[in-house]
UniProtKB/TrEMBL annotation:
It catalyses: prephenate + H(+) = 3-phenylpyruvate + CO2 + H2O. This is Prephenate dehydratase. It comes from Pseudogracilibacillus auburnensis. Its EC number is 4.2.1.51. The lineage of its organism: Bacteria, Bacillati, Bacillota, Bacilli, Bacillales. Residues 201-278 form the ACT domain.
């Protein structure tokens, strides 16, 4: 059976880079937005979906988290971590200088990752946000005006663009986490080794109870469970109402995690396991 993999497209996005690095020989289908990709998995149009979840510089991709929590609940089956190298891409016929560029197009996270570079070298350019770095590259390839895109080498190859400046991101340790979503985890086959298992939890707190967040964290602390991330997001039910995403760098087991769940539920919290999964750290060109 051919496994269909959906990703945030079009061709040339960093999500496509992650998919190519992790999966070989499968049917890869691009989607214009993160919600469309997640919906495609939920509606069984594709077997697997890959979407960005966090960047080391810009932080969490809130659209991915919020859509999974509020709209479509799918299990996280795996995580792919890849290095991100941002480049300034221009039309193959562009022969001007940096100061001749009037517009810069890219995804808002890519723009944010290159903020200092833009401030220093492209102060005259106006910023335009796109759904993805790939769609920005596609736009530049079809436009003869002095505009540029921020994207990767794959985008330059896919859309026949010139790389005017390499590695323009502001900080060198630029990585992005991508999550792999699927209803059937048996279809997710990533032929890379991993030395890390992670479990992601969704926790909602009882209202108007002083000190409850401290008690929640204590449930993990005294069991010596390593939390790699804790983040609050609005419940969208009113001011002051939040849920928490907690990542634990351990696989779900039959001892520690049920103990944590029981302790938190006794406090009035609601606990949902978003996924327990391997983390693959891959190298992409």
């Amino acid at each position: 059976m051919s496994v269909k993999i959906g990703y945030l497209g079009p061709k040339g996005t960093f999500t496509k880079l992650a998919v190519d690095a992790a999966f070989n020989g499968d049917d890869k289908i691009s989607f214009k937005t993160i919600p469309q990709c997640i919906d495609a998995v939920n509606n069984e149009e594709v077997h697997i979906g890959v979407v960005p979840i966090e960047n080391a510089i810009e932080g969490t991709v809130h659209l991915s988290i919020d859509y999974l929590v509020h709209q479509v609940r799918l299990p996280i089956i795996a995580e792919i971590v890849v290095p991100i190298q941002q480049n300034l891409l221009v039309h193959r016929d562009f022969a001007g200088e940096l100061l001749d560029i009037k517009e810069v197009h890219s995804h808002r996270h890519a723009i944010a990752q290159c903020q200092q570079y833009i401030h220093k070298f492209l102060p005259q350019a106006t910023i335009h946000y796109t759904n993805s770095t790939g769609s920005a590259a596609e736009m530049v390839s079809a436009n003869g005006n002095p505009i540029a895109a921020i994207g990767n080498t794959l985008a330059a190859e896919e859309y026949n663009l010139n790389i005017m400046e390499e590695n323009i991101h502001d900080y060198p340790n630029n990585h992005t986490r991508f999550i792999v979503l699927a209803k059937n985890k048996e279809l997710v086959k990533i032929n890379h080794s991993t030395d890390l298992e992670r479990t992601s939890l969704l926790i909602t707190l009882p209202e108007d109870r002083a000190g409850v967040l401290h008690q929640v964290l204590s449930a993990f602390a005294w069991r010596k469970m390593n939390l790699s991330k804790i983040e609050s997001r609005p419940m969208k039910t009113g001011l002051g109402n939040y849920f928490f995403i907690i990542d634990v760098d351990e696989p779900y087991d039959d001892a520690l995690f049920p103990g944590v769940q029981g302790e938190l539920e006794a406090l009035g919290c609601k606990v949902t396991i978003l996924g327990t999964y391997p983390v693959y750290k891959l190298a992409c060109k």
